[in-house]
Amino acid sequence: MKKIAKVFLVLFTISTVFTSCRETTGDKVEDAVEDVADDVEDAVD
């Protein structure tokens, strides 16, 4: 029983690390909007 609990604990820890390090789509959208705004500003100048 203890071995099963340790396996679940390790799997939970690994899944938490990979999930928290992933870039969200909101971050990608925000970066794209900033890039477009910079391009528009450069075109106006």
Could you describe the 3D structure shown?
The protein is mainly α and 45 residues long. It is 87% helix and 0% strand. The longest helix is centred in the C-terminal third of the chain and has 20 residues. It is rod-shaped, with a radius of gyration of 21 Å. It starts with a helix and ends with a helix. The mean pLDDT is 77. It comes from Psychroserpens luteus. This is Entericidin EcnA/B family protein.
Order of helices and strands: HH
- What is the typical, i.e. mean, pLDDT? 77
Helix count? 2
* Major beta-sheet overview: none
Principal-axis shape equals rod-shaped
Taking the alpha carbons of the first and last residues, their distance comes to 69 Å
How much strand? under 5%
Radius of gyration: 21 Å
- Tell how many strands the DSSP assignment holds: 0
The poorly predicted ranges are none
User: What structural category arises from helix and sheet content?
Assistant: mainly alpha
Q: Percent of residues in helical segments?
A: over 70%
Quaternary state of the chains: single chain
Protein name: Entericidin EcnA/B family protein
Organism: Psychroserpens luteus
